[in-house]
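Would you kindly consider the sequence and fold I have copied below?
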Amino acid sequence: MSTFGLIEYNEASAEVRAIYDDIMATRKTDWINNFWKAIAHDPATLKRTWESLKAIMGPGALDPLTKELIYVAVSVTNNCHYCIASHTASGVQEGNDAGNVQGIAAVIGMANETNKIVTGYQVEIDERFKPPLGNK
């Protein structure tokens, strides 16, 4: 259960309904997921978060599936079960499949393992990995 409960569309203020309407129009859907309903108790946070997410996850240099895979990876690392489920589902809509899910889980696990080893050993960064890239 959400800390403050969920604000359903028919219970929402006009300000929140306008944001819900934009979410549904942008996503071409007829429902609002629980994340938005939970943060709707603070309309300013709802609006700011939606506008930021819409900009970052919208068209850009990265394709939609890559963005969803990155989102899943960060969500796994942050232990956010809701975001893992939400963005895995969004990734499937963008063409993700079981093989990709398994592959990204392996990469996430390996990255976390090697990150902790490097941190524990306090490994210095190789010169060729430092900006500007391409130096030898």
